[in-house]
From TrEMBL:
Catalyzes the reduction of dTDP-6-deoxy-L-lyxo-4-hexulose to yield dTDP-L-rhamnose. It comes from Polynucleobacter victoriensis. It comes from the Bacteria. One of its GO terms (cellular component) is cytosol. This is dTDP-4-dehydrorhamnose reductase. Its cofactor is Mg(2+).
């Protein structure tokens, strides 16, 4: 994929990516490798997002025109006890970054959000226009991510209303990419399942939480495509086509690993579906995590995006095909054989 608009950016101002060492951050590193625009990837040690002065210092130093914020407080269970920390990273930091992009850089902000902003108010896939919440039914993580979305939208609206956002060439712009069930280079559900399937003949996996598994690599590519295509500001649901339960994902992952020649103790038929009530969870997870991707597809077709839109199954199979040997060598899969 080539990114023509990026070549039009001011090359004296790098793209700054927060969250270098996360799953999406790592995928972005690969995706941005061949771009002819300088890019700075920042980890926690380079910029602690709980520190306003650290954020301001980094923005002053690099003066980026484009910021991709892949950093977040993502420990869903711990967030209940570390609420202030979750809000500092997931809401306050994005607000500061959004104010800078809207008022100073007049550039582009890409920020990631989550299905956890919804609390089972629908039986079908959520649209971007569906009202998030209700707040009291969201986890602390979900509340902090929703507060982050709202802070970004407000920062851009305020800049626009006050005339600070000198609009030209569709800038400044924000893209809030809500996604779900992400897997990439990092600890995730698929890795855990394969590790368990290598050790246990039978697994019990929840089958009444439904969502869309999303490849971090694909999400990174879509992020670049959306920046490059001048897609207008707003929230977008960025997930592949299809849906499944955690049980469905586990079965497909095991099937795909076996198809690659892996010898696992648990066969697909030994993955037993169980309801959420039988699985102890510290924090309530949404039953319905489905995000409707129609808005994104329409936006992409309006910019003549011609690549085939993916199905989640194909992405999971490709991920396992590419990574199962690495998992093996790390002693993660097949370690008992
Ligand atoms: N994973 C999912 O299933 C999922 C689903 C829906 C939405 N999302 C969203 O997608 C985005 C990326 O998620 P991910 O899966 O890539 O998350 P991740 O793997 O947990 O990575 C998050 C990154 O944020 C960094 N970070 C945390 N606190 C920080 C701080 N105080 N200062 C600077 N950096 C800090 C972490 O740094 P360290 O490496 O130092 O810890 C980590 O590298 C997030 O916005 C998340 O909410 C994820």
């Amino acid at each position: 994929m080539s990114y023509s608009s990026f070549e039009l950016l001011d090359h004296s101002r790098p793209i700054v990516v927060f969250g270098r060492d996360g799953q999406v951050g790592r995928a972005l590193q690969i995706c941005l490798k061949d771009l002819k625009v300088p890019t700075v990837f920042l980890g926690r040690a380079d910029c602690d997002l709980t520190s306003e002065s650290s954020i301001v210092e980094v923005l002053n130093r690099y003066q980026p025109q484009v910021i991709i914020n892949a950093a977040a407080y993502t420990a869903v269970d711990k967030a209940e006890a570390e609420r202030d920390l979750a809000f500092a990273i997931n809401a306050k930091a994005p607000e500061l970054i959004a104010r800078y992009i809207a008022n100073v850089a007049h550039g582009i902000l890409v920020h990631y959000s989550t299905d956890y902003v919804f609390a089972d108010t629908s039986q079908t896939a959520y649209l971007e226009t569906d009202i998030a919440g209700p707040l009291e039914q969201l986890s602390a993580y979900g509340q902090s991510k929703l507060a982050g979305e709202q802070a970004i939208e407000e920062a851009f609206n305020l800049a626009h209303d006050s005339g600070n956002a000198k609009c030209q060439d569709g800038l400044p712009r924000y893209l809030i990419l809500r996604t779900s069930w992400v897997y990439g280079d990092g600890e995730n559900f698929i890795q855990k399942i394969l590790r368990l399937a290598a050790k246990h003949a039978q697994l019990e996996i929840v089958n009444d939480q439904i969502g869309v598994p999303t490849s971090a690599d694909w999400l990174a590519k879509m992020s670049m495509q959306m920046i490059d295509s001048n897609i207008e500001s707003g929230i977008y649901h960025v997930v592949p086509d299809g849906e499944t339960s955690w049980h469905g994902l586990a079965v497909l992952a095991i099937e795909a690993a076996i198809a690659q020649g892996e010898c696992l103790d648990a066969k697909p038929e030994n993955v037993i579906p169980i309801p959420t009530v039988e699985y102890s969870m510290k924090v309530r997870r949404p039953y319905n995590s489905r995000l409707n991707n129609t808005k994104l597809k329409k936006a992409l077709s309006s910019v003549s995006f011609t690549e085939k839109y993916p199905e989640w199954q194909d992405q999971v199979r490709a991920y396992i095909k590419e990574n199962v040997v690495k998992f093996l060598s790390m002693g993660m899969v097949g370690e008992s054989h």
